[in-house]
TrEMBL record:
InterPro entries: YjbR, YjbR-like_sf, YjbR/MT2646/Rv2570-like. GO terms for molecular function: DNA binding. It comes from the Bacteria. SUPFAM superfamilies: YjbR-like (SSF142906). This is MmcQ/YjbR family DNA-binding protein. Pfam families: YjbR. Keywords: DNA-binding.
C-alpha cells in the first residue's frame, strides 16, 4: 500500500483540506473536522487512522494490521498499522467512507457549501 497514494486520494475528496497537527501528524479534514490522520510527516508513516461505520469497527479491528485508534476508538476510529492488511483500493474506499461520515455530521448548510458551492 502506498501512503502517498492514499494521502493524494484523501486530498482529492470534496472540500478536503490538509494540515499538520500535533507537530508531526498529517491530517485530512472536511469542514474543519478530521477524517484521516497519518504520520509522522515528514518521514515514513507508521500508520494511519480514520473513522468507520459502527458496524465495521469490530470487523476491522479483528483484521490483522488494524487496531482501535488511540484516543478516537470511542468514536469508531481505527488505526491501520500494517500497510499490507488490505489492498489500496479497499483502503481508498474506507477513506472515502470516513470522509462521507464526517461530512454527514456537519451542518446541512456547510454540507451544501462543500458539495455544491451553495451558500
Amino acid at each position: 500500500m502506498s501512503y502517498a497514494a492514499l494521502k493524494k486520494h484523501a486530498a482529492s475528496l470534496p472540500g478536503a483540506t490538509e494540515d499538520i497537527k500535533w507537530g508531526c501528524d498529517w491530517v485530512a479534514s472536511v469542514g474543519g473536522k478530521m477524517f484521516l490522520v497519518g504520520g509522522p510527516e515528514p518521514g515514513p508513516w507508521d500508520g494511519c487512522s480514520f473513522k468507520v461505520d459502527e458496524h465495521r469497527f469490530l470487523e476491522l479491528t479483528d483484521v490483522p494490521g488494524f487496531i482501535p485508534a488511540p484516543y478516537l476508538a470511542r468514536v469508531k476510529w481505527v488505526k491501520l498499522q500494517d500497510p499490507k492488511a488490505l489492498p489500496l483500493a479497499d483502503l481508498k474506499a474506507l477513506v472515502e467512507r470516513s470522509h462521507a461520515l464526517v461530512l454527514g455530521g456537519l451542518s446541512k448548510k456547510l454540507q451544501r457549501e462543500i458539495l455544491h458551492g451553495i451558500d
